Amino acid sequence: GGVLAIIRMGTVLPSTPGDLGLFQLATVVALRRFDVETIDAKSFSLILYFALRVPLLAGGAIATALTGLRIGEIHERARQGATAPPKPAVEEP
Length: 93
What we know:
By secondary structure, this protein is an all-alpha fold. The chain is about 70% helix and about 0% strand.
């Protein structure tokens, strides 16, 4: 529990996409506080990173595939939605 709390606090800072690098640093710092050897902490940080990220990436890929759209089409629809005027909460007759 303590290691995960330290990792989460360490990755609150703005970082690269996916916290790559900062996640590993926070994991190594957290594990070193519990007397884990540096080389073991570095190895574990990579394993933990991929164990946490791969299911999210797979789920996103599956969800995108199920939409039947290409990623470019999804981006375009998101851009159009962001620039469209807001719709009224209640339609007037």
